[in-house]
Amino acid sequence: MKIEGDAKRVMIFIGESDRWHYQPLHTAIVEMLRREGCAGATVLKGVEGFGKASRIHTASILRLSEDLPVVVTLIDTPERVERVLQKIDEMVGGGLVTVEDVHIRKYADA
């Protein structure tokens, strides 16, 4: 798959305890993106953060959290992003979803 030039980046901020049909939401999103033929996705686990409720979630030993922040990032063509955003909106009950314009300079296998 060759993708270069103008694209969209989607960032999905959720918690690691969020679920979709009994599986971790971040896993369900990545599997859906793969089925939809997206160029790729990355899941990053945060060590600390807070959201709308201002409740701190941290990996600190003194304040162990069972709901650390997770970010799923997807970069793809504007058309494909628009198509998968409908499914993402359906899956993400709470959290934050952002969409930004980006320019892909290089996308290649190692």
Give structural attributes.
single chain; alpha+beta; Alpha-Beta Plaits; four-stranded antiparallel sheet; 2 helices; 23% helix
Q: Describe it for me?
A:
The protein is of the alpha+beta class. The protein has one domain (5-104): Alpha-Beta Plaits, CATH 3.30.70. The protein is 23% helix and 37% strand. The chain is globular, with a radius of gyration of 15 Å. It starts with a strand and ends in a 6-residue tail after the last strand. The mean pLDDT is 89.
State which percent range the strand residues make up.
35-45%
Largest sheet descriptor: 4 strands, antiparallel
Q: Give the number of helices.
A: 2
What's the overall average pLDDT, rounded? 89
What is the gyration radius calculated from CA atoms? 15 Å
Shape: globular
**Ends apart, CA distance between termini:** 14 Å
Order of strands in the sheet with most strands? 4-7-1-8
Q: Please bin the fraction of helical residues.
A: 10-25%
Number of domains: 1
The CATH level-2 architecture is identified as 2-Layer Sandwich
Strand elements, count? 8
Which class best fits the helix and strand makeup? alpha+beta
Order of helices and strands: EEEHEEEEHE
CATH class: Alpha Beta
Low-confidence stretches: none
The CATH topology assignment is: Alpha-Beta Plaits
Summarize the structure.
The chain has 110 residues and is of the alpha+beta class.
